[in-house]
Amino acid sequence: MSEIGTRGPLLSVKDVKVHFPVRSGLMLRQTGQVKAVDGVSLAIGEGETVGLVGESGCGKSTLAKAVVRLLRPNAGSVVFEGADITHLSPRALRPLRSDMQMIFQDPVESLNPRQSVRQIIEEPLIIHRQGDAAARRRRVDELLERVGLPANSGEKFSFEFSGGQRQRIGIARAIALNPKLIVCDEPVSALDVSVQSQIINLLLELQREMGISYLFIAHDLAVVQHVSDRVAVMYLGKIVELATAEAIYQRPYHAYTKALLSAIPEADPMAERERMLLEGDVPSPINPPAGSAFGHRISHPRYKETVGMNIGLVEIEQGHWVARDPCCLTEDDWNKVQ
Amino acid sequence: MKDGDPAKATVRQIYQEHDPGGDALLRVQGLVSAFDTERGLLKAVDGVSFSVNRGQTLGIVGESGCGKSVTAMSLISLLPRPAGKVLGGEVIFKGEDLQKVSETRLHEVRGGEIGTIFQEPMTALNPVHRIGRQVSEVFRLHKKMDKKEAWEAAIEALRMTRIPSPEVRVGDYPHQLSGGMRQRVVIAMALACQPDLLIADEPTTALDVTVQAQILDLIKGLQAEMGMAAILITHDLGVIAENCDLVVVMYAGRVVERAPVKELFANPMHAYTRGLLNSIPRLSLPPKSELNTIPGMVASLSEMASGCRFCQRLGRRSSLGDERPELREVSPGHWVEACPECCGGEARESV
Q1: What's the gap in Å between the CA of A129 and the closest CA on chain B?
Q2: Closest CB from B210, B262, B279 relative to A55
Q3: Which residue among B19, B27, B199, B316 has the highest number of C-beta atoms inside a 10 angstrom radius?
Q4: Out of A204, A220, A265, closest to residue B288 by CB
Q5: Per-residue pLDDT of chain A in tens (338 residues, 90 and over written 9)
Q6: CB neighbours of B250 closer than 8 A, spacing ≥ 6?
Q7: Residue B192, φ and ψ in degrees, nearest 5
């Protein structure tokens, strides 16, 4: 699949920036800004899953919120089905909300404890005025069955369910309006492995049946690789590598991607492999290094060259994009992109 | 392995089985821990046995609620009181039963001879004290150092965990540090007195993979340096595979399988262990393929069956009925809960 999905992208973001002000002092004057997302371009095709990986604080969740316009980006554009939605007001966005939904990491916090499961799943149907009470009732029953919850679940409360079942409730709510895009923000991170695989299977089934596109955020690279068509690796507010899931795992170019991959513990005690240990932590997005953020972290000898350099993405292979950064590419690869 | 009276065999196997060597650093036998609740006394840990030798790393793996953390807490009598209590079993540490020793002796053991690291470093650290004070407290308590000596020792301990510029960091408050750095502080505290045993309960679950790799590497290195044994509790089989010598698989408060790590991954016997191993997405699987799952859910503690609990989850009836399956040794050091329905291969034959 090329940069843009075969049938044209369902959603594309171009050069999106989300900066948050940092205020301090008595008058709460703005003293700086957190560049949570700093110039990201990404397209998601119909029925495609784009995985987004990176360490905590790299801006994954902020990007996700900007994509579905829960946040207004400071710069750049968000185009959904050909229409620019970057500057739409919340009211103008409302009709589009049925096409884009979200599933969150913590099903406990994202489900109202005072509502019954039926009320939770029915709410989007009411807001979007779908059907009368009887039709909605049937639809909720259908959804409960579809996500594999017992028939009597509707009358219970979310806290009566286990973590995996709660995530099923979240999924039922997300698919209630037959959305075209679901942003999944760490949907399985809080779950045990045996339940995690059930939820992943459910998400994959729903995609096959309904042709949903996913933006799938997780810090577990094995999970992301498993569910994604393409994977974007994010580091300090920027995408540093973007390629098909296969290519990212078979032939990563960026040093950070390589380090991330080598850090995954493999469930095989016989596997002997070399681990690239990353020193240090992600630099602060309030005061990011002037040059290559990753080069700075690993104190790369060529870091100085990157100060003031425009590090953009370059297509190093068909459909495989990587940051044009001398600190993060091997010498051969660097020469290739010159 | 076939005994005349299966019921008696069960009791003997569970409560008396021990390592042939017998010189284990820590030997846990038939540990039973329970919580007093409105629904009665609920056993979170139901007859758990294992042992760790000096320098070894034992991994305890299982899903949430399987009793792995309660096991760890029970070892050093840290169950929340008054609700939690150890009902039975022995915890023999360096030849001494920790369940029977005095509170004073326990204080010496905790932090002195057994160090602990818990999942969330922020809750293990006091937010209103500088980290130097918290680390040096260990030295003041256990090594009877004075304030100044202890402060110096704290800097050294922080240096050992590779915190950059420890002489500056020692004056920081926990909130000024990143998650990985906080966990290093907790490790510094746990290892301050060069304990014989380290208990690490999900030490890296709250951390990113890159930081997780740093921390596990650090623990491994320090362990080799000090010849320390460790109990590593995690739900991540990858972490187990890369860091442990022995593995205990727990399900619903019981040990379902116990084996050397290579043996367990090469030759898993219990259906639950197999289910766990099969449900991990691996880089080698075809993308978007259906993953294996374990059907059903863990029953709540008050509804736990007395017989095979994994059969209970799968909604089938074990041919042993309500009788608890015994642990059997299927190959040297490889023990499995011998429910005929849950065991494959040799274990099944021996049943």
Answers
A1: 35
A2: B210
A3: B199
A4: A204
A5: 344 444 568 999 999 999 998 888 888 888 888 888 999 999 999 999 999 998 888 889 899 999 999 999 999 999 999 999 999 999 999 999 999 999 988 777 889 999 999 999 999 999 999 889 999 999 999 999 999 998 889 999 988 888 888 999 999 999 999 999 999 998 988 888 888 899 999 999 999 999 999 999 988 888 999 999 999 999 999 999 999 999 998 999 999 999 988 888 888 888 776 777 777 667 777 778 888 888 888 888 888 888 888 888 999 999 999 999 998 999 899 988 88
A6: B48, B60, B61, B62, B66, B67, B68, B71, B256
A7: -50, -45
Report CA-CA distances (Å) from B318 to A272, B6, B334, B348: 39, 15, 22, 13
Element (H, E) at B135: helix B131-142
Tokens of B255: 């040990």
B274 touching A (Cβ < 8 Å):
no
- The model carries a pTM of 0.84
Q: Using CA atoms, how far apart are residues A85 and A98, in angstroms rounded to an integer?
A: 14
CB contact under 8 A, A267 and B261: no
Whether chain B has a CB inside 8 Å of the CB on A259: the answer is: yes
Q: Quick check: A17 and A35 in contact, CB under 8 A? A: yes
Q: What is the ipTM of this complex?
A: 0.79
Q: Is B181 on the interface with A (CB under 8 A)?
A: yes
Is-cis flag, bond preceding B166, omega within 30?
A: no
Chain B residues with CB-CB distance to A60 below 8 A: none
Whether the CB of A249 is below 8 Å from some CB of chain B: the reply is yes
